[in-house]
Design a protein that fits this description.
Layout lengths: L38 E6 L14 H8 L14 H4 L2 E6 L7 H17 L3 E6 L5 H12 L2 E6 L19 H8 L2 E11 L6 H10 L1 E5 H7 L1 H12 L3 E7 L21 H9 L5 E8 L10 H27 L1
Parallel strand pairs: 1-2, 1-3, 3-8, 4-5, 4-7, 5-6, 7-8
Helix pairs in contact: 1-10, 3-4, 4-5, 7-8, 8-9, 9-10
Amino acid sequence: MSSTGTPRGPVDSSRVPRYAGPATFARLPRLDQVARTDVAVVGVPFDSGVSYRPGARFGGNAIREASRLLRPYNPAQDAAPFTLAQVADAGDIAVNPFDIGEAVATVEGAADELLATGARLMTLGGDHTIALPLLRAVARRHGPVALLHFDAHLDTWDTYFGAAYTHGTPFRRAVEEGVVDTAALSHVGIRGPLYGRKDLDDDEKLGFGIVTSADVMRRGVDEVTDQLRQRIGDRPLYVSVDIDVLDPAHAPGTGTPEAGGLTSRELLEILRGLAGCRLVSADLVEVAPAYDHAEITSVAASHTAYELTTLMARQIAAERDAG
């Protein structure tokens, strides 16, 4: 936000080519270049909680590089998000790559500090372990939140190799800790083999509703989005997007790919359909650029973060105008 109160937007691409200069998200100013921010885009370069292919620690910067091509007007939502709210790149949270417990605590503390400024978070992972500390911090500010989780996997397993904190367990821990509203929990895009029927039974007992990728294909985006909105209601909403919700054709650069996923178009349209929901923060995780081709995954991720940021900016502006 400038001294006049007008949001400071991206670098002017008619003066500085998109491929030049620092790769902040969408070429936006850094957090230290603005007086205050409404949406902080923050990276968490951490992937010590993965169970298969590593590399998501490099995801945040890959998303930032791909976001160079984002433009300031979003026609799908008829909004210029960076004029509606001050969005800034808060850099990365430096976490211990050798101690998951310490890393989780560090993310939680850093999220607390950013949220205390009044900002909402658009977090770029990193693996899905980081969703738990982010949810803890958001719940301290808003109370238990509705959770909309886009993923190929449930991420509600109890332990993995005896470890309670991994990228496959954050949402079981979130339910156990009471940081999510169990009347409004939804998975979208679930597919692929499981360890057994018990995985689904346990997930249902935790309170989750499941929309599979096949449901999206058969029922269509509009019907699915209406169902999700009804479940969310007017609760504060947290959205967590694992990029492997997309089919490997659309997101090959991820750690645990599963065939039969959503298209990038389906994901973006579902997110756009959340306009009017009380989106208080979001994360986007599991981009592993070492397995990517031609930035396919990073481009999809950058557009996903852009739609989420636009939703938050529109709500911030609406709340401000309502006085």
